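Exercise 7b. C-alpha cells:
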C-alpha cells in the first residue's frame, strides 16, 4: 500500500536455483516474428549478468520449442515491433516460466550475432523503415560466449571499484572480438555502470569456444584497478559451468562458487619485482610468446598477478575497519541508513547501504557493539576509507 497505493498481491511460483534463459527476437510491422537465437545468462552476481552464451546449452528439444513458440506468441499478442528479448526462468525440474520482455537491444546481443550471422542493429533500422524481415528463424552455426569485463573486485564480493587504467592489452586471434569503451590511461568513473569491455569468444563448438576463452582471458591484461578477469579465468575451468549437467544457476556465485580469488592488492610497491609483459610475435610463420619487463613499450604501474587465496571469500565485501571505526571500503553514495546512533548491533548487521556504479552494496558491522558517532545521511557521498561510525563495547 505504501509503495503503490493498492493492496492486491501478485503471487508467482518460487523456482529454486533456476537458469536464466532468453530468446533474441525480431518483429516487423507486418506481423512477422523470428527468434534469432536462444541465450543462457545464468551466471550472475546480485541478479546482474556476468557471462552470456548462445545458443543456450543443455536444453531439451521440447524446452527449446516451448521457448521459441512462447516468445513469438507473446510478441504477436502485444503487437510488438522491433528487436526485443523474451526472458524466462528454467527450474530444476525443467519448468519454463516467463519472466519479462526487454524492449531493447541488450548488452549480450553480440553472441547472437556471432552464431546467427545477423546484424541486429541493421535489422532494427530495416524494421524502423517499414521493411519486412523476409526470413524465418535463421540456422545457427557454432557457439559464442560473452564475458563482461567489469570494474569490480571479485575477491571482495564483486565490490564496484572505479579507477584509472594504467595498462590495457586486449587479446586477439581467431574467434576473438572485444567491444570496449575505454583505453589505457582513461578513468572509469563511479557514477556509471561498471562495464568497461565485452570479450566475445566464438568457436565451432562450445568446447572450442571455452578453449579459446581460456587463452583469451589469460592474454587480457587490465592494470591499475581491479576487474572481474580473475573470476572469468576461474569459471571457464569450473565443471559446474563447463560440463554437463550444467550446474550454474542465478544464485550460483553467491551460494556455491568456491571463491578463492585474492582481493585486489593495489599497484606494485617499491622494491617488488617488476611485472613482465607478454608479447606475441610471428617469426617464420610461427607464433612465439616472449616476456619483457613492463614499461619498455608503454608506462605501466600495475598489480602483479597474485596467487589464489586459500580460503573462501566472503559473499559480501567485508567492511573495512580500524579498531572501533567502521570505514567505507569504496567511494559511493549513501542510499539507505539502516540503524540509528546508539543502536546495538551484531557482527554482520547492515549499517548503511552504499551505491556505486549503479549497484547497491551493504556496509556491515565488523564487530558487535553500540553504534556511536553515526552522522550518515541519505544522498551523502563518502570516500573510500572514510569513517562511517564507531562500534564500541556497551558501557
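Sequence design result:
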Amino acid at each position: 500500500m505504501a509503495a503503490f497505493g493498492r493492496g492486491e498481491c501478485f503471487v508467482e511460483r518460487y523456482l529454486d536455483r533456476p537458469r536464466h534463459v532468453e530468446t533474441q527476437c525480431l518483429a516487423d510491422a507486418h506481423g512477422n516474428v523470428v527468434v534469432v537465437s536462444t541465450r543462457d545468462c545464468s551466471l550472475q552476481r546480485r541478479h546482474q549478468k556476468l557471462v552470456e552464451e548462445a545458443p543456450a546449452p543443455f536444453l531439451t528439444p521440447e524446452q527449446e520449442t516451448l521457448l521459441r513458440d512462447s516468445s513469438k506468441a507473446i510478441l504477436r499478442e502485444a503487437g510488438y515491433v522491433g528487436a526485443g528479448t523474451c526472458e524466462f526462468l528454467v527450474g530444476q525440474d525443467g519448468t519454463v516460466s516467463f519472466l519479462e520482455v526487454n524492449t531493447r537491444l541488450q548488452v549480450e546481443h553480440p553472441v547472437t550475432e556471432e552464431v546467427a550471422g545477423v546484424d541486429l542493429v541493421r535489422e532494427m533500422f530495416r524494421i524502423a523503415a517499414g521493411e519486412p524481415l523476409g526470413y524465418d528463424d535463421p540456422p545457427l552455426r557454432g557457439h559464442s560466449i560473452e564475458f563482461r569485463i567489469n570494474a569490480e573486485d571479485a575477491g571482495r564480493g564483486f565490490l564496484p571499484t572505479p579507477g584509472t587504467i594504467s595498462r590495457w592489452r586486449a587479446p586477439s586471434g581467431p574467434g576473438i572480438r572485444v567491444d570496449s569503451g575505454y583505453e589505457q590511461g582513461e578513468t572509469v568513473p563511479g557514477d556509471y555502470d561498471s562495464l568497461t569491455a565485452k570479450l566475445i569468444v566464438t568457436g565451432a563448438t562450445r568446447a572450442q569456444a571455452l578453449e579459446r576463452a581460456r587463452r583469451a582471458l589469460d592474454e587480457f591484461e587490465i592494470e591499475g584497478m581491479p576487474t572481474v578477469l580473475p573470476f572469468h579465468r576461474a569459471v571457464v575451468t569450473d565443471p559446474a559451468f563447463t560440463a554437463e549437467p550444467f550446474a550454474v544457476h542465478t544464485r550460483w556465485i553467491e551460494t556455491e562458487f568456491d571463491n578463492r580469488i585474492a582481493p585486489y592488492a593495489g599497484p606494485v610497491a617499491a622494491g617488488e619485482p617488476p611485472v613482465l609483459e607478454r608479447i606475441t610475435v610471428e617469426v617464420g610463420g610461427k607464433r612465439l610468446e616472449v616476456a619483457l619487463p613492463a614499461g619498455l613499450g608503454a608506462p605501466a604501474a600495475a598489480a602483479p598477478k597474485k596467487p589464489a587465496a586459500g580460503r573462501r571469500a566472503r559473499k559480501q565485501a567485508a567492511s573495512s575497519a580500524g579498531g572501533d571505526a567502521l570505514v567505507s571500503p569504496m567511494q559511493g553514495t549513501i542510499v539507505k541508513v539502516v540503524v540509528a546512533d546508539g543502536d546495538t548491533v551484531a557482527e554482520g548487521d547492515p549499517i548503511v547501504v552504499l551505491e556505486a556504479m549503479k549497484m547497491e552494496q551493504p556496509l556491515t558491522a565488523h564487530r558487535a557493539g553500540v553504534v556511536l558517532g553515526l552522522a550518515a545521511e541519505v544522498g551523502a557521498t563518502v570516500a573510500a576509507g572514510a569513517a562511517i561510525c564507531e562500534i564500541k563495547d556497551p558501557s
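Instructor comment: The chain has seven helices and 25 strands. The chain has two domains: 19-256, 325-392.
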